[in-house]
Amino acid sequence: METGKSLSVAAKIISFLSHPLLIPSLGCIVIFNSGYYVGLLNPKIMQAVYIVVFVLTFLLPALIIPALYLQKYITSFVIEERNERLLPLSIVAVMYGLSYYFMQRSGFPPILLHFILGCIICLVLGLIITIKWKISLHMIGLGGLTGLIAFLSHSYGLGLHYFLIFAFIVAGLTGTARLILGCHIPSQIYAGYFLGIAGIWFSMLLF
Length: 207
Description:
By secondary structure, the protein is an all-alpha fold. It has helices spanning 2-17, 23-32, 43-62, 64-70, 86-105, 110-130, 137-156, 161-180, 186-206. The protein contains nine helices and no strands.
């Protein structure tokens, strides 16, 4: 009994720490610390970029969840019901689109813009799939982060092996956590992860 409870608590903590909305911010950190030339930007500029990305892609979208809960559009802050995910996902997709437009107009580094665009593409694909099937949004996000690291490493010859190993470990822990909590079945975990990898890789390659 105690072991099961401890596992459940640990799984909830892991799910919280690997929230999909954090992926753009984590991707921004990876890009600036990957050895790619944008890492040579003035530290104050990089700090400003970190703050803008975090506010636009995590903080503001996260604020819609309490609002939707208070208006009874969702029955839980974790939004585990498939049909309840459609409205929040639609709103976040629009907010990400506006964020991308603002970043583009503000002269953000192209590679970061390509990654944000990839996140939008993955989000829209996740929304379309969610209409009929409960794909794992956590794993789409972590797959996207893995895809970013793999793309940077492969396309620019950057030594990101430790980043990649870390991404695999976090993805494995998160996938296991989602299964322990009964939020998904294995196929939804795998499908989300590979969608994230493919979505980010091809969007960055094409755009």
